[in-house]
Amino acid sequence: MSPGLLAALLPLIPHTDPMGWYSIVILLVAIGGTSAYALKREALFRRKGDGARGWSTSVISYGLITLALVLALPAQPEIAMAVTMVIAFGDGSATMAGMLVRGRRLPWNRDKSWAGLAGFLLCAIPLATLAYWAEARPGVALSLACACVAPAVLMAALAESLPVRINDNIRVGVTAGLTLLVTHAMFVGW
Q1: Is the whole-model pTM more than 0.90?
Q2: Domain ranges of the chain
């Protein structure tokens, strides 16, 4: 969940809109540095049962998805920051809630629970909404930020719950990113 702090800190760092090259370099260094640290110290972070390959794919995909969105949409960093929050706190909260509550299993994936799905939604919607709202320039109402983010979180939560072999950071990040692009275009425009 710690890479989600990047999305929380970006609004506090002065930067232009669209993001200038120096801001993108700072993000590149921050994301690259935290990714390199996580890869080097994987024993501190990796969950039991995750292989080294799964761990490195998770770490690398996290950074690549965030950077791809920042580079592709320098005038809309709120999209990248919201997606980063969804990956960080949605997926992480689903794991924690599923392990702690252990409720009924999802009918389409017996390895996942309704508690995990609820944890994903309850944590990611407010945090990703706040990240989007804080970074949006010009500013948007909190309700508009939520209207853009909530469908993306729902779709990402459903993608995370599917019984497929694709790494969940990739599924969650790509799904949240694509959905957020659509909702942003619908509600905010370009």
Answers
A1: no
A2: 4-187
